[in-house]
């Protein structure tokens, strides 16, 4: 069976035909490095790692180029650096933030069994280049020369009116966008949807020599970064571009506008793939709701990376995913079952059965592939099947050690939670509801939810608890 992928650009699933089968090229937008990656950020990293592995399986490991960038210039980075290192010069503080975050990101995702991409460019290395590769400033100058961008008050803006089919990826016309726009329109913009390619730097901020026509130093906008890195490493037109569904508009729409207008091509990438969003226990993940879950804290809480990976892949990548404690428990049970057999064959096999591979080739149907995997649990092919999904080098030992850690964590949690529950029940009996509510809130702060039920026989209230994050 041929590989089929769902293309956001055509809104259809179609057979994938690489431009050059000896060099299949894929670009995925990577993290902005200012804070721990959350479990939502892990989704595109894992999903596109599965696609990378599948492409390597089909075309050969030497014939796939995968680029996943690091965004290391951004307002959020500057703000975090100023907050965390108020006594350092901003540039130094920024370096500290980006280096530490990038290191943490790599540690987190390698625990999730993610292969390094072929190239992992940093945005700041592609602002100006002297090796002839495409860079942001030359791209911007080309766009100005071709009449697709204009300089205004030390900014360079992309003129969306200059591109007749702007909006094709997100399937919206410019008129519709303008009608729905809630963006505050800067006075120097010609049109409300025109977006920034370059802006002047504020004093003390990192800054680079600007494109011609601007005398003050500045810095690039977010969208131009990906156009330059993709162009430099994959060429003007490549096979696959991926990212989370939230990036479709404006980020990917604007990447397309920049790259196509600069290179005068009809597409930037042939296939656009977007993963669905992740929410936590039925709610949107946000810092203010207190349900913001990082990869790091899940690992520290004792969840093996393999369990997190399996939990992610049990939902098809295009569907929304609800990340729950119950789902994690179930994924852990599945893995424990798979790896509980002492006789697991750890020698390498190249044999990946067709039914399993066909599931993956059908727009990365990982839930189906996992169902197939169950059927092979006692076969000698099990390890190569697991490897195709990224459960690599797994000998059962890692999981057993992690199981033990998890059991210990659960034990120590129970020993701090249970006395509090008993104290709360006591308080309720004395009708000291202020105290019982206070204890419940204290437990909620620890991520513990309580459930009271009446025992039918004794009439007593009984309380059970669960960890909600
Ligand atoms: P960011 O650092 O916010 O630019 O996000 C990095 C990647 O994570 C992008 O591909 C986003 O689309 C993706 N992403 C962010 N939040 C979520 C989420 N809750 N669910 C799935 N993907 C997400
Ligand atoms: Zn991007």
Explain the overall architecture:
- Helix 4 crosses helix 7.
- The two termini are 41 Å apart.
- With 469 residues, the chain is α/β, with parallel strands linked by helices.
- Strands 4-3-9-10 form a four-stranded parallel β-sheet, with helices on both faces. Strands 5-6-7-8 form a four-stranded antiparallel β-sheet. It has a two-stranded antiparallel ribbon with strand order 1-2.
- 42% of the residues lie in helices and 15% in strands.
- Among the domains are: 20-275, 3-Layer(aba) Sandwich (Rossmann fold), CATH 3.40.50; 410-467, no CATH class.
- The structure holds adenosine monophosphate and zinc ion (ZN).
- Adenosine monophosphate (AMP) is lined by residues 29, 31-32, 40-41, 43-44, 243-244, 246-247, 275, 277-278, 285.
- Zinc ion is lined by residues 29, 226, 251, 255.
């Amino acid at each position: 069976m041929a590989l089929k992928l769902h293309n956001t650009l055509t809104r259809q699933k179609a057979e994938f035909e690489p431009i050059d089968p000896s060099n299949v090229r894929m670009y995925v937008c990577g993290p902005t490095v200012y804070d721990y990656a959350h479990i939502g950020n892990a989704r595109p990293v894992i999903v596109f790692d599965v696609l990378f592995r599948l492409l390597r399986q089909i075309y050969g490991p030497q014939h796939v180029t995968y680029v996943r960038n690091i965004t290391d210039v951004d307002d959020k980075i500057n703000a975090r650096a100023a907050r965390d290192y108020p006594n350092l010069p901003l540039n130094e503080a920024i370096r500290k933030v980006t280096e530490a975050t990038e290191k943490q990101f790599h540690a987190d995702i390698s625990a999730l069994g993610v292969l390094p991409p072929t190239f992992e460019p940093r945005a700041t290395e592609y602002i100006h280049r002297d090796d002839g590769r495409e860079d942001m400033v030359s791209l911007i100058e080309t766009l100005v020369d071709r009449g697709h961008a204009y300089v205004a008050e030390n900014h360079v803006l992309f003129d969306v009116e200059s591109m007749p089919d702007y909006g094709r990826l997100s399937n919206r016309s410019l008129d519709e966008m303008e009608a729905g726009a809630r963006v505050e329109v800067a006075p120097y913009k010609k049109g409300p949807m025109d977006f920034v390619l370059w802006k002047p730097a504020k004093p003390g901020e990192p800054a680079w020599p600007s494109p011609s026509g601007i005398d003050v130093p500045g810095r690039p906008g977010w969208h131009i970064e990906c156009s330059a890195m993709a162009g430099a490493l994959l060429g003007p037109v490549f096979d696959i571009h991926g990212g989370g569904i939230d990036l479709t508009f404006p980020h990917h729409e604007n990447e397309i506008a920049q790259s196509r207008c600069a290179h005068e091509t009809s597409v930037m990438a042939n296939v656009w793939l977007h993963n669905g969003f992740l929410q936590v226990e039925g709610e949107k993940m946000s810092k203010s709701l207190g349900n913001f879950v990082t990869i790091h804290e899940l690992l520290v809480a004792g969840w093996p990376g393999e369990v997190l990976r399996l939990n992610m892949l049990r939902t098809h990548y295009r569907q929304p995913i609800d990340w729950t404690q119950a789902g994690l428990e179930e994924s852990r049970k599945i893995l424990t079952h798979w790896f509980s057999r002492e006789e697991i064959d750890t020698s390498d096999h190249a044999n990946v059965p067709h039914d399993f591979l066909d599931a993956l080739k059908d727009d990365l149907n990982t839930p189906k592939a996992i169902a197939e995997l169950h059927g092979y649990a006692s076969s000698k092919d099990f390890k190569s099947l697991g490897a195709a999904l990224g459960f690599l080098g797994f000998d059962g030992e890692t999981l057993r050690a992690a199981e033990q850690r998890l059991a210990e964590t659960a034990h120590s949690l129970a020993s701090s939670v249970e006395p509090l529950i008993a104290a709360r029940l006591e308080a309720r009996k004395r009708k000291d509801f202020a105290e019982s509510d206070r204890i419940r809130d204290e437990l909620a702060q620890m991520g513990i939810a309580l459930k009271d039920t009446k025992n039918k026989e004794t009439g007593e209230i009984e309380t059970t608890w669960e960890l909600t994050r």
